[in-house]
Amino acid sequence: LQWATTRLQKGARKPQPQMPRTPTANGIIERDETPMEKEIALLHGADFEFSHIFYFCRKGFEAIVEDEVTQRFSSEELLSWNLLTRTNVNFHYISLRLTVVWVIGVIVRYCFLLPLRFTLAAIGITSMIVGTTAVGQLPNSSVKNYLSEVVHLTCSRILVRALSGTIHYHNKENRPRKGGICVANHTSPIDAIILTNDGCYAMVGQVHGGLMGVIQRATVKACPHVWFERSEIKDRHLVTKRLREHVADKSKLPILIFPEGTCINNTSVMMFKKGSFEIGGTIYPVAIKYDPQFGDAFWNSSKYNIVSYLLRIMTSWAIVCNVWYLPPMVRKEDEDAVQFANRVRSAIARQGGLTELPWDGGLKRAKVKDTFKEEQQKNYSKMLVRNGSVG
């Protein structure tokens, strides 16, 4: 609401207590990109001294105060209030009129939209299980493949309606084709539904239990999805072999993979794991960008379980997003898998207007690898040895 945003902006213009300011180069703190050797040399000398620890302490404080990684795993801040209070700043009383509108919105979203969406979701999931199970009983043929695609598309579109999804697909001539690999940035578990609303894909993932397991067992009968047992998914060579066999069959649906391996908050694209780019075949990049004004699609799995997340999604006003199909890409002769992955990631980031970060999304839960620490230690020891030999 424009008038609500204006009201917030007026409040922000009120005189605030003046705090002493210091010039900042980029962000909260001023970062100095001077190499380690020069910075330590400025402290005292080339030989080891206890004062050198101040350099590492300062770099540690910089990482804690303004960390590039962890801020990508929390919901992005909105410029205006969207009657959802889904921003990082909690709801504050602004006016009686705005509060009344917000209360009416809560009643509409929870008492009208939520039951309707839950009903549509139940219909979509039930139809998926029943439809794929029935199609799975047919012998392998072009008729079975056609009916499988019809069932998958129909059920996916019902599920998108359950989210009040408004999706804009761009450059449809670049849609992934059979025998290829579709890779996309990852914001939410519903990314797969967003893409299957416009085309069929072979999913890749771990075998689950419960309702998800029932869906997996039903769908794999009608379509050659690639599901792995928990013990198998750790076997990198087995995973690569099965994916290569799938891609080699040009009659099978394109594989859908999210190379980041975790959900990022719709502002950035983090490191793509190289495994998806070692398989071979044509890569079809896809950029997905959500509009957070109507609902926050990002799943912060550290804060919400899947049930709480789905409740938040289904009580939003709508899920609005843009999907760009990028031109297909193949690995160059002089490229390794990592370079190819970085090139694909850069293309997705440019198209989606996302920030490109070189960090592994696994840092969301895992500790920093010892190899990263050892690399800094080696650089420091090399500097001391080199300076000592010169002296």
TrEMBL record:
Molecular function as annotated in GO: glycerol-3-phosphate O-acyltransferase activity
Membrane topology, record value: Multi-pass membrane protein
Compartmental location: Endoplasmic reticulum membrane
InterPro entries, A to Z: LPCAT1-like, Plipid/glycerol_acylTrfase
Stretches the record annotates as Disordered: 1-29
Pathway(s): Lipid metabolism; Phospholipid metabolism; CDP-diacylglycerol biosynthesis; CDP-diacylglycerol from sn-glycerol 3-phosphate: step 1/3; Glycerolipid metabolism; triacylglycerol biosynthesis
Domain annotation Phospholipid/glycerol acyltransferase: ranges: 180-291
One biological process term in Gene Ontology: triglyceride biosynthetic process
Residues spanning the membrane: 91-112
Any Gene Ontology CC annotation: endoplasmic reticulum membrane
Protein name according to UniProt: GPAT3 acyltransferase
Record gene name: Gpat3_0
